[in-house]
Amino acid sequence: MTNQHDNQALPPKTCTIERLVTVPADIEKVLSGKKTATRRNGRYADVGEIMELQGHKFVVEKVYSQSLGELTDEHAKQEGYETVEEYKESILSYHPGMPWLPQMRVWVHEFRPVLD
């Protein structure tokens, strides 16, 4: 796993930060501090970019690529789940028919609350 902090080393974004966390249950997890990362099939944010959810701001601290086979229970906890299996079941329920392939790569966006 490679953590890249230099946005210039990253490929162009494929979406906007406003679409990073959109599922109501996930928004609640972020607001309660249970979710501190989101994995997407594209890059939605740059390091330092601000995400706003219901009037609360979160800064993206890390953006890096990871394979699904690298996921651990600790990574699942970042997503607000107890285990990789629980996270996997949730993702596959949102994307019926999507294969879960260990070599499939996703973009990890780690964030933290902005303290005013």
UniProtKB/TrEMBL annotation:
Annotated InterPro entries: ASCH_domain, PUA-like_sf
Species: Cytobacillus depressus
Record-annotated membrane-spanning stretches: none
Superkingdom of the source species: Bacteria
Domain ASCH: 20-115
Protein name: ASCH domain-containing protein
